[in-house]
Amino acid sequence: MHLAVYVLRRLAYMLVALFGVSLVAFVVTRLLPGNPAYMIVGEMADESTVIAVTERLGLNLPIHEQYFRYIQQLASGDLGDSWRTRNPVTTDIGSRWPATIELGSAALILALAWSVPLGIVSALRRHSISDRLANALSGFGVSIPEFFLGMILLLVFFATLEWAPPALGRTLGDVPPHTTGLYTVDAVLAGDWEAFKAAAVQMILPAVTLAVTVGAPMVRVTRGFMRETMASHHIRSARALGVPERSIVLRHALPNVLLPVSTMGAIMYGYLLGGTVLVEFVFARPGIGKYAIDSISESDFAPVLAAVLLSALSYLVVYLVMDILHFVIDPRTRT
Amino acid sequence: MTGRPASPATEAPPLLDIENLTVGFHTGTEDASMPLQGVNLRVPHASRMSLVGESGSGKSLTASAVIGMLPEGAEILRGSIRLGGEDLIGAPKRRLRDLRGRQIAIMFQNPRASLNPVLTVGGQIAEVIRTHSDAGRRESHRRAVDLLDQMGVPDARRRAGDYVHQYSGGMAQRAALAMALSCQPDLLIADEPTTGLDATLQQQVLELVVEQVSDRGASLLLITHDIAIARQTCERTAVMYAGRVMESGPTASVTSSPANPYTTALLRAFATVDEGRMYAIPGTVPTLFGPLAECPFASRCPEAGDVCRDGVPELRAIEDREVACVKA
Fold first, then answer.
1. Is B105 within 8 Å of chain A by CB?
2. Does residue A187 contact residue A211 with C-beta atoms inside 8 Å?
3. Is B245 among the domain residues?
4. Residue B58 falls within a domain, yes or no?
5. Which of B113, B132, B165 sits opposite A242 (nearest CB)?
6. Which chain B residues are within 8 Å of A240, Cβ to Cβ?
7. A242–B117: do the CB atoms touch at under 8 Å?
8. Nearest-neighbour CA in chain B from A329: distance (Å)
9. Which pLDDT score, from 0 to 100, does residue B30 have?
10. Lowest mean pLDDT among A57-61, A65-69, B152-156
């Protein structure tokens, strides 16, 4: 199949999926008890003010009409307004999502960097020290809650050793000029190393926290697929014809393992991009997860819907990129 | 269990000489599983030998021992394997890896599974060539295409760039043969090479294997459970049972006038399938824990007597063959 046709078809599926997500999310938020109008006007407002606000927001309309209006709004690129922050949701997200993307990407890179090599090495040497290390670390990472690990890291590296800065947002230095919204990237683009350091230092502990919990299952998956591949017939055949072990591992086995492992990585990245509420809370990072939770507790519908859609979109986009990548790597998908 | 019949003076020293090969799985106890119980097998230069036997008789394990790739936990307890006079059991790993592909090549059953799904077929053959020669990338690919062409893969230049999922079973087996023969090995071990292919393809592949091996002056060790295939492809046949060679000699005489009662029973089991009735050898294959104390076939043999239980019969030369039976 031609790549362009494939991508177009996938984009069409993506629209359908987003449509479905928006419908479910919309209905769920509208079914929540509580009239947001009260939140806006305050408890002391009189009846007529409440009614006026309710009508202005369209909350008196039947739910399908409300949804229809919302979709029309979406189609024009408007995600609505937050009555909590009094900003258009697009503005709020524009300032918060980069924080999530920055942290999620850093966490994914760290997670891949430790989990995939460890998984591969431990698969090659069963019962070795690296295999035991893989067991211990992945067991630890799978079982410890993110927020708890974050707190321990803060306790050790900030409170006790005083190596890490206090967990106060994205940077304690200057905010670099806005290009991408990712402070570290913007700082590099501006050539401002002080700003880069200030932003990077704030990211280390939360990124490590996420890298441990996200990397842990990846160690197991990588090790499992590597073991399976190394035991396969084609590896035995190649060995039986004298192909050197280095090539067996890197050329013959690795591509077969990276296919499923990259899928797993994509799932993890999708999760990270949707916002990691607890870690954002512990490290006081203004990301999309924290935004969504704050909004939910105040019946602020538009940001909640936007966060849900954004989360779904991140998954879908990451999967699409992954599948395109597989299309390129895996000859079996091409025919 | 060290005795063996003297080779007839006329015979040249064999290419492959397996003597008293005993393989066990180390479990830490005295009664460890011992699937090979002193295998004796010789494959002369430029000859074709088939190794026939039921599942579990130790055929494939013998092949694994020859290429130095026993499964995890298995260990050679006794015996020797010599290739062209060189002892393989004591050889360093590096030397063994160098021999594999260059002097001994093996092709397994299920060719589609034995080729890597994410590498091109031609690329895999070329890599084996580069491993064992000074050929560069371009030269090795050219040779890979030539080999595929010689094995009867149509449009070899284009097909070399294809992946195994684009190959049919028969074509994949041709590609596997091309890969195995790519470095002119002296010995090709073919482990059930036609299992899973339909009858016509089976015939074609076997003819190709015989033709290619003979053209190269190499020897073939064909592992099969099918006596008909042995008859058709190999001038010599060795019959294995319970980790031992029971009888070996010219295929024609072994399969027409067997000297070991086990061979007789195996042939009967084959022959009666054709007549529409099944003949099953009574009893079961002995479990091989610890060394054998008697003829492994004694409990199932119609001709067994007390003498059969006095020890494990060694292979001895009788007329044109070697037989491990005291009654023969």
1. yes
2. no
3. yes
4. yes
5. B132
6. 67, 69, 100-101, 105-106, 108
7. no
8. 8
9. 60
10. A57-61
Q: How far is B212 from chain A (nearest CA, A)?
A: 18
Interface test with B, best of A230, A233, A237, A326 (most B CBs within 10 A): A237
Measured between alpha carbons, how far is B72 from B70 in angstroms, rounded to an integer? 7
Q: What is the ipTM of this complex?
A: 0.88
Q: How confident is the model at residue A238 (pLDDT cuts 50, 70, 90)?
A: very high
CB contact under 8 A, B101 and A240: yes
pLDDT digits (tens, 9 = 90+) for A300-309: 888 999 999 9
Specify the CATH number for the domain of residue B318.
Answer: 3.40.50.300
Q: How far is B128 from chain A (nearest CA, A)?
A: 6
Host domain of residue B273: 16-115+167-323
Q: Where are the domains of chain A?
A: 102-285
Q: How many helices (H) and strands (E) does chain A have?
A: 15, 0
Average pLDDT, chain A: 89
Q: Partners of B51 in the beta sheet?
A: B223, B238
Pick the residue from chain B with its C-alpha nearest to A246. Answer: B131
The total number of structural domains that make up chain B: 1
Strands B219-224 and B187-191: parallel
Would B88 be classed as within a structural domain? Answer: yes
Residues of A with Cβ-Cβ distance to B163 under 8 angstroms: 331-332
Residue A139 has pLDDT above 60, yes or no: yes
pLDDT of the residue at B272: 65
Output the six-digit token pair for B307.
């003498």
**Sign of the four-CA dihedral B96, B97, B98, B99:** positive
Q: Which chain B residues contact residue A332 at CB under 8 A? A: 117-118, 163, 165
In angstroms, what separates the C-alpha of B250 from chain A's closest C-alpha? 29
Chain A residues close to B101, C-beta within 8 Å: 240-243
**pLDDT-flagged residues of chain B (< 50):** 1-4, 6-10
- pLDDT single digits (tens) A156-215: 999 899 898 888 888 888 888 888 889 999 999 998 999 999 999 999 999 999 999 999
- C-alpha A173/C-alpha A264 separation (Å) is 35
Cα distance between residue A314 and residue A266, in whole Å:
10
Per the CB < 8 A criterion, the answer to whether A38 and A90 are in contact is no
Topology, domain A102-285? MetI-like fold (1.10.3720)
Tokens for B204, please give them.
């074609």
